[in-house]
Amino acid sequence: MEPLKHECGVAMIRLRKPLSYYQEKYGTWMYGLNKLYLLMEKQHNRGQEGAGLAVVKLQSEPGDEYLFRERAEGSSAIQEIFNAVHAQLAHAPADSLGDAVYAERHLPFAGSCLMGHLRYSTTGKSGLTYVHPMIRRSNWRAKTLSICGNFNLTNVSQVFEAITSVGQHPRHVSDMHILLEQIGHRLDREVERLFIESKGHGLQGMDITHYIEERMDLANVLRQCAPLWDGGFVMCGQTGSGESYAMRDPWGIRPAFYYVDDEIVVLASERPVIQTVMNITSDRVQELHPGQALLVSRSAEVRTEQIVEPKPSAACSFERIYFSRGSDRDIYRERKALGEHLTPAILRAVDGDLQHTVFSFIPNTAEVAYYGMVEGLDKYLTEQKLQQIQSQPDLSEEALRTILAQRVRTEKVAIKDIKLRTFISEGKSRNELAAHVYDITYGSVERGVDSLVVIDDSIVRGTTLRQSIIGILDRLGPRKIVIVSSCPQVRYPDYYGIDMSKMKEFIAFRAAIALIRERGMQQLLDEQYERALQLSRLPETEWVENVVQAIYAPFTPEEISAKMVELLRPEGTRAEVELVFQSLEGLHEAIPHHPGDWYFSGHYPTAGGSHLVNRAFIDYMEQDHHERKSH
Q1: How far apart are CA 451 and CA 346, in angstroms?
Q2: Which of 246, 257, 422, 542 is buried deepest, with most CB atoms within 10 A?
Q3: Distance between CA atoms of 491 and 510, rounded to whole angstroms?
Q4: pLDDT of residue 5 exceeding 50
Q5: Element (H, E) at 151
Q6: Are the C-beta atoms of residues 366 and 604 closer than 8 Å to each other?
Q7: What is the Cα–Cα distance from 221 to 481, expressed in whole angstroms?
Q8: Which domains does the chain have, with CATH numbers?
Q9: Is the pLDDT of residue 1 over 60?
């Protein structure tokens, strides 16, 4: 499987006691920093292009810094930012490092409000400017804001117009910079509301500041901003005066979980991460509901509030299939169910001949689905044995032993051997090296006799299949190679967080286009292109049809799979090759509580998604026309 990139993981901590409490109980005032490090390290699968953290101190005098941030790019970013934090602390007097009261007053990053972020870019934009958390500073602590998020908005231009229409002038047009300005503007208004209120009570000087900071309500800010956001998101933020929030999109597309006790508030993108870091059972971790915000005041009071009414659930199924760690109790069960649901289709592909079939998986993400597949095959084989025994009541002991000895043949056929070095970008060298990303276990398959079934979690672009997997499996000499995908055909771009946005990237789309051209149906492409152009004139807040669905409509999934095999099968492959995909029905049976399936079905949960898929088709058609013309 070629790795998909995911837009980010978040981690947020609020300590509810003074740092001296943690020094006394846990032997270090860095308790919060250590927990943040673990939360981020345990979620490194969610982002390896960059990482950042921001820490707010509650105890600081005017003239002292109260908001600290560290960011880095690259796969070792987590290590880098925490090394940088510790390097700054190394300058402190040696005896002060064990003094929590001194640390809280004078040392950098010795704060009670902590926020971390792991980044994968889905925009293609890179550089520290785009690494979260992002900061909007002010000489009022309550107006100072740092934010981060796991999100992709589909209507950035609409939010941009909304904030520029009231006179704001953002310096960048990335979605995060625009959100920073939008939320910051509403934060300013909230502070000003409280300022006027405090003057009405006859307050002056620092009493006004204390009045504002004690009564800040970030729910008011979010209620003004969030209704404009179209997309999947978990937004996190904290002010310089110590209020923090985390909000989940109303469709529940992106995940968020939290834990609260009398010492700490913890929020992260994944449940088992909190379980491991806090050493608690799953029932103590809460899920943040769609459209809901977790709000923590300056005085560390915690509440949840419904900011936007929940929409029909579109919780991301890809999150369960691929992105989230499989150590979550429910995700583990779901991934096994995905494998088991494929049993009938796999048996058809090998004509029910388990005696001459070897089963394996593509390392490493498909391993859990593989266990489910094997369990499903074991159940089938048990039924077969039972029928054989019942149909022959006078079996000899030897015949009975032969029946009972039948096993599902499982081997670890493919081994993830090397990581391609990113500095090798020249196409031919890269393709040549790609053939060696996996190694094989020779002798695990009887040449010319056995079929070989390998399960993968998903097939998106097909690059790794074509350049590496099919070729190396063919070296084993199987009669037939069956590549099984635990999820359905990925047919459409995702606009809510996963890095797949161009139509031609999808092998399923390329297969449908090839079938259309083979069968002289070019007119269908032209008609859908014209339709997409018409719909592009409508406002992006208005739902439109997904014109790409009509491209797939004339063909069965099996026809598209067969064409995918033709496109992906390397020249010189001796074995017969077949692709088997999960059905949409099987997906929803295995993962019943995460119905979001737009990348498989084309049913986008928001208006913005339906506009963007049509835009992607327009871009494909225009680029294709340009390439054909130039040839």
Answers
A1: 11
A2: 246
A3: 10
A4: no
A5: strand 145-153
A6: no
A7: 56
A8: 9-311 (3.60.20.10), 328-375+427-630 (3.40.50.2020)
A9: no
